[in-house]
Structure formats: C-alpha cells, structure tokens
Amino acid sequence: MQLTDLGDAPPRLFKLGLELPLVRRVLALGSWVMLAMITQFFVNAADNFMVGRLDDHTLATASQAALGLGMPFFWAVGGFFCAVAFGTQAMTARRFAEGEHARAGQVLWNSLLVATLAGLFGGVFGWLITPGAIDFLAKASPEQAELGTTYARMRMLGVPAMVLTFSYKAFFDGIGRTRVHLYAALVMNLLNIGLNYLLIYGAPALGIPAMELKGAGLASAISTYVGLFIMIGISLGPASRRYNFYRWAHTRWAIVRDIVRLMLPSGSATVILMAGFMLFMRFVGELDAEAGGNTYSAATKALMDTASLCFMPVIALGTATATAVSQSLGAGKPNLAARYGWESVRLGVYAMFVIATIFLLFPQEILRVWAPNDPAVAEAGAAAVRIVAAGLPAMVAGLVLSQALYGAGANTYVMVVEGVLHFGVLVPLAWLLGPRLGYGLEGVWLAACLYTNLMGLAMALKFAGRSWRSIRL
C-alpha cells in the first residue's frame, strides 16, 4: 500500500468512526516503529526495573531516584543532537514521494555528516557538565546526586552512537522502511538486559564486580554502539544500494544548512521538555528532603516509566504520521496529510481510554512492578497514577500532532509551545502546588496533567489551521 494513493478530500474533524484505509496504512507503517520504540523503552526501563531489585532496598530506592534525574538529563543532551532526525525524515520523505531516490540518499549522507560532529560534541559536552547539573537538580539526598552523576556520565559515552543511529532511523522511516530500526532495537534490548544483569549484580565467576547503577549506564552505552553497527550494516545491503549514500560528492552545504535549521528548534524543544521534567524532579526531591529519604522521587520515576510505556507507542504512531504527512505534502495532497493526522489522533485516543481505566483501577499494583522491595514507593505514588490517567487522551493529541507538524516542517511552532507551557505552566505550577502550598506529590502531578491537556489543545489548534500545509522543505 502506498501512503499517497488515496484521494485528497478534506478531513472531517467531528466524527466517531475511523477512516480505515488511512488507519491501515498508518498502522502498517507505524507497527514496526511502535515495536522498535517499545523495545527502546525496555532498554531504558530495564535500568530502573533491575536496580529496583537490588537486595539493599535503601540503595535500590536511591538508585531509582537518581535515575529520575540522570535519564532526563541524558535525553536533554542526547535528544538535542538527535533532533538531526526531524529534518532528515521530513526531507527524505518529500524526496521519496517525488520519486527522487538519489536525492533521498543525498539527504542521508549530509545528515550523517551533521550527526557525526553533533554526536562527538554532545558526548564530550554532556560528560563535562553532568556533575554540576545533577548537583543542582538533586534535592532528595546526597546519594541521589552521586548516583545520578555516575549514571548520566556512563550514558554520555553512548551519545555519538545514538545520534548517528537516529540519523539512519530517520532516513529509513522517511522512505517507509520502518522495520529497519526494529531489528537494531531488538538486538540492543536483548544485549542490554544481559549486560545489565552482569554489570549491575556482578558475576564473580567471570571476574565482573557488581557495579550497581553505574553498570546499568555502561550496559546501555555499549548496547547503543551495537545498534549503530547494525544500522550501518543494513545501509550497506542490496536493498539500499540504489540510494548510493556514501559519496563525498553528495555533500551539499545547502542540505546541511536545512537539516541544521530544522534540527535547532526541534532539539531546543527536546531540551525544554527535559529541562521541565528535571525541574519537576527537583521539586519532588524537595518533598523527599522534607520527609527524609528518596521515596517520592523513586515513585515519580516509576510513574514516568509507566507513562513512557504508554507514550512510546503514541510517539511511534506520531512518527508514522509524520512520514504520511510529509509524503502527502510531497505528492501535492495537503488534505490527505490532514486526514492522516486526525485519524491517528482518533485511534490513539480510543486506545488511551482503555489504558486510563487500568491506571484508575490498579495504581499500586502498577508501581509495585518497578519497586517490589519498598512498599512505601507504591503507596506514595498511587494517587498520582490516577491523576496521570486524566491527562492520557490529551497526551495523544499533543504527541501525535507535534510529530505530524515536524513532518510538515513546523518545528519552530512546536518549540515555542513547549517552551511556553513548560516554563509558564508545568514548572511554576509544580513548584506552587507541591513544595510551596503543600499538596505533595499529587499537586506536582496535577500540574503535569494540566500541562498535557494544554499541549494537546495547542497542537490541535495549529493542525486545524492551514499554515503548515504550505511549508517548503
């Protein structure tokens, strides 16, 4: 099935039924992305899952609290430079839809040039600023700061490989070969779990000491390089030869400029997103400092990982939608592009109603999966799980349509909205309702729920307009 072989009739916004031909195409494209992203989720979540099972439950809870800072800080740095993917995917999809395969390959070559420099710089930069940044953010305990710094620095070693992998992924997603990254992600996940077991808990018979949280970070970094080598191998296969990637003669500074131009607002949006979450975690840490311990921070990390298991498939749906939107615009069918966006939102919202029901019914059981050795974690976070359930449907609109707007090239709008909502709503309200007014963890997460609802509304209003349809890439 071709994404652009359907008619260009205008979308109908207010209806309950799904337009099945579009849904089938998005799911056929997005199912592979979804599986890859869920697999990628387990690469990250395995760290939290496995350190939560350390025999010393105090160390386990402190390690999970540290992950709550170390992980978003790592993604703030790595995610900024990985934003090379947004321009790469949008430009590749346009060239592919226009039948310009050689020019699509040219996009990847120039993207790899940008990614190589960006990845190396990002890894060094992240390593250097980690201690000061984590020390500023860690308010729960000294152990949170020490462990968070160690973990984040280990992850920074993998930034160069992660940025290059995202460049390859964006190209293959743009031409519709979304299953390619799944192959790499599956191997990465299996390897990460095995290395986590060896490095976190140790293997005396093999001479490997127990490295605890440091081992989790190192395992993830090693797995990232293995994933990159798999992507490079696939790019050298016979199915990719017609794109003729690896030629210095493909270098075009105009393409580099356009990739960087789209990367900067997208990467800035990622930094804003993660900065908001890190300040969010800082305020949770203040609650822990008052109570004595790391319980609230560990509960928040567990809740974030639970929410991630929901929004990773939604981001995958958004990635597929971005390709569909970009290819439809390249084929001269803007109404079809709009219909793809709205049908994806409708599909995701229906799925989220089911998940929200589970959140409402089994909050403590969900959190115990992450922290089985410390019952206080599940008790502290149960009410917050129910609050998160109220924001899940709007989260779908925000995530899917922001990706769709990236596919259209409206990157700056997404960045501005992220900045306004994070620092105008999420951060000040989380501080006000949490540490300042004393509503505790529930107050902090209520601010997050309001943020997700406003994000969904802002993206929906932009996508309902027509300005994104005329952006040229």
Poorly predicted runs of 5 or more residues: none
N- and C-termini, Cα separation: 25 Å
- Helix proportion of residues, in percent? over 70%
Secondary-structure element string: HHHHHHHHHHHHHHHH
How can the largest sheet be summarized?
Answer: none
- Report the radius of gyration as a whole number of Å: 22 Å
Portion of residues in beta strands equals under 5%
Total count of domains: 1
Question: Helical segment tally?
Answer: 16
Average pLDDT for all residues: 88
Number of E-state strands: 0
- Dominant shape: globular
Q: Give me the secondary-structure category.
A: mainly alpha
Describe the model:
This protein is an all-alpha fold and 473 residues long. It has one domain. The chain has 16 helices and no strands. The mean pLDDT is 88.
Task: Give me some keywords for this one.
473 residues; mainly alpha; 16 helices; globular
In brief:
The protein has helices at 20-51, 57-82, 84-97, 101-137, 142-156, 159-174, 179-201, 213-235, 253-291, 295-330, 334-361, 363-370, 375-389, 392-408, 411-436, 440-464.
Topology:
Layout lengths: L19 H32 L5 H26 L1 H14 L3 H37 L4 H15 L2 H16 L4 H23 L11 H23 L17 H39 L3 H36 L3 H28 L1 H8 L4 H15 L2 H17 L2 H26 L3 H25 L9
Helix pairs in contact: 1-2, 1-7, 1-8, 1-10, 2-4, 2-5, 2-6, 2-9, 2-10, 3-4, 3-6, 3-9, 3-10, 4-5, 4-6, 4-9, 5-8, 6-8, 7-8, 9-10, 9-15, 10-11, 10-13, 10-14, 11-13, 11-14, 12-13, 13-16, 14-16, 15-16
